Amino acid sequence: MKSNGEKSYPKVRNSVDVPREEWTGVPVPDSGILRDLVLAARNAIKENKKCSNAGRYFWELTGSVMRCGECGVAMGTNHITGRDARYYRCTRRYGRGVGACTMSKNFRAEKTEAAVWNFVSGVLKDPERLRAGLDEICLGSKLRRAAILKRKSGVGSSGSPK
Ligand SMILES: [Zn+2]
């Protein structure tokens, strides 16, 4: 409702697809990531289902992305409809009561998401940092795999079978 009492309506924007012949190519800088690695990653997640409960939002940090700093469980969102405000809160404390976790703070979604996006986009814009992070992930994965193989083969296990 406008101040003069007139009824107001939300703006509606329509978009029309442009034919492919009229598309404009945009050069994309080399990320430094091998094409095979990208294709393998896409293939690995092609069956993934949407894991966030963000229906109305472009993205949010649920789906185990954001963790409680006190107990480590996934943070969930709390949408306060009347104020149209969103917060992240510890799901353990919310589900089991205040004695379950000491994290009493709720985090404003806009502020939290902006901070995370700044971090993520900073990494994406810095190929060296991105490569170092991926190397670290690959190294961690290799070490875990090696530890599993070592355990299964019995190499390094103490004591002898009886
Ligand atoms: Zn917690």
Automatic annotation (TrEMBL):
Residues 65-120 form the Recombinase zinc beta ribbon domain. GO terms for molecular function: DNA strand exchange activity. It holds the Pfam family Zn_ribbon_recom. InterPro entries: SSR_resolvase, Zn_ribbon_recom_dom. This is Recombinase zinc beta ribbon domain-containing protein. It comes from Rubrobacter marinus. The lineage of its organism: Bacteria, Bacillati, Actinomycetota, Rubrobacteria, Rubrobacterales.
